[in-house]
Amino acid sequence: MKSKQAGITLIGFLVVLAVVAFFGYMAMKLVPAYSEYMGVVKAMNQVSTEGSDGKSLDEIRRDLMFKLGFQYVDDATIQPQDITIDRSNGNQLHVAYDKQVPFVYNIDFLLHFEKSVPLQGNVPSI
């Protein structure tokens, strides 16, 4: 009686290995950007819970940028003009920014991050 062999061939294994390596490399490039975003969210929550009574937009921006330093957010990631206050649904601290992550040769990932958190207290109108 002849036994039938089962399993993956060397070429099949190399194809599977190439696909896994591609997605692994992609994850290595993208995970730091998402962990940085989690730091931005944490800093925004800290600023929102501190209260903003009488603080101007510039003071809120300064507080947020200071807290972003503790969260290991790169200084070039978020610019002050990316931080706004949305008054349509009450006072909400709104941060929207784009991050470009180089991948291979001339291929980049463009990630868009946007988050709003409610501010406690009154923020004077400008």
TrEMBL record:
<keyword id="KW-1133">Transmembrane helix</keyword>
<protein>
    <submittedName>
        <fullName>DUF4845 domain-containing protein</fullName>
    </submittedName>
</protein>
<dbReference type="Pfam" id="PF16137">
    <property type="entry name" value="DUF4845"/>
</dbReference>
<keyword id="KW-0812">Transmembrane</keyword>
<keyword id="KW-0472">Membrane</keyword>
<feature type="transmembrane region" description="Helical">
    <location>
        <begin position="6"/>
        <end position="28"/>
    </location>
</feature>
<dbReference type="InterPro" id="IPR032314">
    <property type="entry name" value="DUF4845"/>
</dbReference>
